[in-house]
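Our consortium's second objective concerns turning raw sequence data into structural hypotheses that experimental partners can test. To show how far this objective has progressed, the report includes one record in full. It was chosen at random from the queue rather than selected for favorable results. The single chain below, 130 residues long, was entered without modification.
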Amino acid sequence: MIEFKWDHLQLRSTDAEATAAWFARCLNAEIVRRPARVDLRLGSINLFITALTQAHAVQLPAGARKEGIDHFGVTVNDLDAAFEHLIHCGADIVEPIKPVRAGVRACFVRAPGNILVEILERKPAEMTFT
């Protein structure tokens, strides 16, 4: 059987430098400079940023989602501390912290380039008996 392995996620932004700086400031990503481009390393994820000279804005009703890749998610051990950090660095909070299911909480932020990122905290669900 052929094994497929994760390689990268390609981002597009009209200001690749601002997008890279946001990921470095807000998500502690490492900026990797290459000839004529800027890339990021976020944990084990490679993020490549393509600079666009112009972009077409997509206007959706509040709460609506577009077809295609909606967002990508990263995990943290302490979502409350991460959320405070995101607020402090001026991140655009799309959805505040909320429970997703037992043991999982998340929030959503928007990066420059209209990139939606989910920040998750996964803890073993507590077993309760009544």
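The partners drew two points from this record. DSSP finds two helices and eight strands in the chain. The CA atoms of residues 59 and 80 lie 31 Å apart. Both points have been shared with the crystallography group to help prioritize constructs.
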